[in-house]
Amino acid sequence: MAIRELKVCLLGDTGVGKSSVVCRFVQDHFDHNISPTIGASFLTKTVPCGKELHKFLIWDTAGQERFHSLAPMYYRGSAAAVIVYDITKMDTFQTLKKWVKELKEHGPEDIVVAIAGNKSDLSDIREVPVKEAKEYAESISAIFIETSARNAVNIEELFQKISRQIPPLDPQEYEKTDAFKLTRPPPTSSKRCC
Ligand SMILES: Nc1nc2c(ncn2[C@@H]2O[C@H](COP(=O)(O)OP(=O)(O)OP(=O)(O)O)[C@@H](O)[C@H]2O)c(=O)[nH]1
């Protein structure tokens, strides 16, 4: 079975739960006291997708404004970007729109964009209506899903949706190589273990 390496970056405001989503996906773990990411962290996970294996090379970026200028290093060459907002904070949804604009202007042309409304376990204090987020995602042809890293809701589904949006390899590519690299990760990062 062919293994494809797919670079994926997570973008979004600080505190929306990017690291928690990645940590839940890769390690099936949730940490209430997780620290803010410094620079970016890198993790991988391989999942089956039809006749292929998708090895996600996941760059979890830091949401704090002071790290914003590093982001191009992580979305450059990405097959997909997951832009996360916190459903309990409308301002994080506005930040998400800025990320969409930046990706449109400077990101890869064919990048798959997934919008994840995280902290769905806190829907009693929701500020971002599902309808508004869904309609916005549709308007930019992005994947949309609400997740809860805390309760492990829709985390696998988020990455499955991304996998399904990646066009399968041309059969001739299988013959050329066992591992087909879609992207190359950026050279440096400082990492926080989650
Ligand atoms: N209730 C709830 N809390 C969550 C969820 N996901 C993350 N959190 C909490 O939100 C806070 C921030 O989570 P992080 O994963 O560090 O957020 P981040 O987006 O990576 O933040 P930066 O690294 O600063 O960009 C932490 O206290 C988490 O425990 C969730 O699904 N539900």
From TrEMBL:
Pfam families per record: Ras
UniProt-listed SMART domains: RAB, RAN, RAS, RHO
Compartment list: Cytoplasmic vesicle, Phagosome membrane; Early endosome
Keywords, alphabetical: Cytoplasmic vesicle, Endosome, GTP-binding, Lipoprotein, Membrane, Nucleotide-binding, Prenylation
UniProt entry tagged with the keyword Lipoprotein: yes
Gene Ontology MF terms in the entry: GTP binding; GTPase activity
Major subcellular location class: membrane
GO CC, alphabetical: early endosome; phagocytic vesicle membrane
PROSITE patterns: RAB, RAS
Membrane topology: Lipid-anchor
Similarity field: Belongs to the small GTPase superfamily. Rab family.
Name of the protein in its database record: RAB31, member RAS onco family
